[in-house]
Amino acid sequence: MSDLLERGRFLLPAVLLAALPFYLDAFWLRIGLFSMAAAIGAVGLGLLSGTAGQLSLGHAFFLAVGAYGYVWLAGDSGPGLPPAVALVLAVLLAGAAGGLFSPVAGRVKGVYLGVATLALVFLGHHVLLTADSVTGGFNGSSVPPLEIGSFAFDQGDDLTVLGVPFGAEERIWYLGLALFALTWFTARGLLRGRPGRALVALRDSETAAAVMGVHVARYRSAAFVVSSMYAGLAGVLLALSFRRVVPDYFSLALSVDYLAMIVIGGLGSVAGATAGAVFVTALPLLMTRYADQLPLVAAPGSGDGSIGPTEAARYLYGAAIVVILVFAPDGLTGLARRARARIARPRPPGPAPSDPGAAPRPPATAVRAKEHTP
């Protein structure tokens, strides 16, 4: 029975997500695509910062490596590899970039590691602006569509499924679902296995972990490489969803957004990273669409001096971070866990509410006093 319930927990959401392209328009599908890409990157950062306890402010750099790596490898300016091969190589390229930085990650920790990764963002942004032949410079580059065999994930040929025209958003939606499912199950398997226990031991106490036989530097470096590969995969999916990459997107603000995702969702939790990614990603997009219906929020380009939807969204999830840290340090997953425990907690026995003639139950103090009366 428990196996059926466990399968149902994943099967029902999977069926629901697979059916959404038949009912939602392109705007909502784009929100879903951006959220799935953000969730993949947030899961990787959650493994690094939430499970291994390593602060990283350079996540945007590894997303840029994945996005621009795919564009260059599959584009005309690069070797022009098949897009599916370019996707895999872009993820490996992001992991290699994390591997080059891993000696620093293996020896530096805390705020010093955060400052070191912060340097990656500024260095990467400078390279993206100046390496025009590879990145396209300030204006960026168009993204080659992904093709697997004869099937292209773009607006190419007319494709209709059950009477619904399938454009680029609908096609990439299922690619995003497949990549997110791969991320979800590999990350959960990693956390539940020996590597996950070793990373948790490192986070709690490096001395105790070393005594138990955990190679501290090796596991810290491995966590950085795995997190970078997840970030590279997220960068590729973002590039395919945007269809154009520009250097200004991969800035420090993006790294801060990813930190907000894992803090709001709950550190060290795959489900929490996913929930935080959806919240942080969807909020500014929704506020932009409904800006004319929200108080104190100006529509983009109105120029009336009010707060723009992007700034308002940052204020809101900044306030959400403060509330989470004060009242629920374990994030949304902790709140959900406590809510489930409270619902499942059995009620103490007592008279049925429908029995008006039932005698009232004496208080516990009266029962104890009666027991001690000589």
Please state the overall shape, judged from the principal axes of the Cα atoms.
Answer: globular
Helix count from the secondary structure assignment: 15
Q: Classify the helix fraction into a percent range.
A: 55-70%
The overall pLDDT average reads 83
Structural class call reads mainly alpha
- Fraction in beta strands: under 5%
Radius of gyration: 25 Å
Region (Disordered): 342-374
Protein name: Branched-chain amino acid transport system permease protein
Transmembrane segments: 27-48, 55-73, 85-104, 111-129, 172-191, 223-246, 258-286, 315-336
Keywords: Cell membrane, Membrane, Transmembrane, Transmembrane helix
What would you say this structure looks like, in words?
Helix 3 (59-74) packs parallel to helix 5. The protein has a domain at 2-249. The protein is built from 15 helices and six strands. With 374 residues, the chain is mainly alpha-helical. Mean pLDDT is 83; it is low at 355-359 and 364-374. The protein has helices spanning 2-19, 26-51, 59-74, 83-107, 111-130, 132-135, 168-192, 194-204, 206-211, 216-242, 252-265, 270-289, 309-327, 331-344, 364-371; strands at 141-142, 147-148, 151-152, 160-161, 164-165, 244-245. It has a two-stranded antiparallel ribbon with strand order 1-6. It has a two-stranded antiparallel sheet with strand order 2-3.
Chain-wise SSE layout:
Elements: H1 2-19, H2 26-51, H3 59-74, H4 83-107, H5 111-130, H6 132-135, E1 141-142, E2 147-148, E3 151-152, E4 160-161, E5 164-165, H7 168-192, H8 194-204, H9 206-211, H10 216-242, E6 244-245, H11 252-265, H12 270-289, H13 309-327, H14 331-344, H15 364-371
Antiparallel strand pairs: 1-6, 2-3, 4-5
